[in-house]
Amino acid sequence: MPDNDALYDVRERTKNPEHASVDDVVELILERAQQPRTEHRDAHLDEMMATVVDRYGTDPIRTVVHRVLVDGTPFRTATQGLEMSNVDGVRVGTTAGQFLNELNAQDDG
């Protein structure tokens, strides 16, 4: 279960230009949804996002990512007012957090 009090190091929240932005995270989600990695430990996330993006399009994905990473909305309820299942909100939120950490680690390295 995700920690509802989690704070993410995303540029829109921290105002730190060295942190990845929501747009960076969404771009990576969409890129990997179009071209899922194979033979990678997180390949399942890419495949899962391919299904979710295909099902809902890009705008709801962007909204859920912003709500989770910037507003601190719990994954399950980040879909409120969208035509998206709560389970898919959890999937998007989990992937967004993972990809944000990956982007920030690349910038550090």
Task: Give a written overview of the molecule.
It is built from 5 helices and no strands. Helices cover 61% and strands 0% of the residues. The chain is globular. With 109 residues, it is mainly α.
Shape annotation: globular
User: How far from one another are the termini?
Assistant: 29 Å
Spans of 5+ residues with little confidence (pLDDT < 50)? none
Tally of helical segments: 5
Structural topology:
Elements: H1 11-14, H2 22-34, H3 43-56, H4 58-69, H5 86-108
Descriptive tags:
single chain, 109 residues, mainly alpha, 61% helix, 0% strand
Give a nutshell description of this structure:
This protein is 61% helix and 0% strand. With 109 residues, the chain is an all-alpha fold.
